[in-house]
């Protein structure tokens, strides 16, 4: 390591050398809080270092994540496995499937609709009319690259409903705003995608005013649409909550 390292970053070069060599024996554990070290380029450097030293899925190295048997994680519920996803026919009708099949089609690990395509569909009606949107915990008027396009698109909807904690710029555009509960007002299971543990979360206070948890809002909406949408892919627990099976 070049001797000018200390002059540049204030760290002795031999310490840098020792740090780079340390993972070789598989005794280093990478535990990171939220901060600047979570930047993508830094993360890539750490992962590359773990890989070239042969410490992937080794004790003290980078362990491949796993879950307790029978537990369904949040990523699985939103489509990480085919077990919890709708039929391939429905997935091929998702907006953006033809243009971005790996992001929006049946083969996508976590399918989603490209936001710009969705906004343009609201305006043009192509490939089919999109007249109602239910937005949960999102703020597309701010987050989308084209704010003017988002505002124009939402004005074309027949129904725009937003569930959020605050009156965001997106919520201002909505026909109805549903008050959602915070994590402090609801109990649940917390899972960490890279760990094999489950933690129970206990609410700190009762639901405030007329707020509901996101899942309760979704379940009640599906109940209203029962018979008009496909629910065969839902798990036993959700089916029992929605249609009593």
Automatic annotation (TrEMBL):
GO terms for molecular function: 4 iron, 4 sulfur cluster binding; metal ion binding; oxidoreductase activity. Keywords: 4Fe-4S, Iron, Iron-sulfur, Metal-binding, Molybdenum, Oxidoreductase, Signal. InterPro entries: Mopterin_OxRdtase, Mopterin_OxRdtase_prok_CS, Prok_Mopterin_Oxidored. Residues 81-223 form the Molybdopterin oxidoreductase domain. It comes from the Archaea. PANTHER family: TETRATHIONATE REDUCTASE SUBUNIT A (PTHR43742:SF9), TRIMETHYLAMINE-N-OXIDE REDUCTASE (PTHR43742). This is Molybdopterin oxidoreductase domain-containing protein. It comes from candidate division MSBL1 archaeon SCGC-AAA259I09.
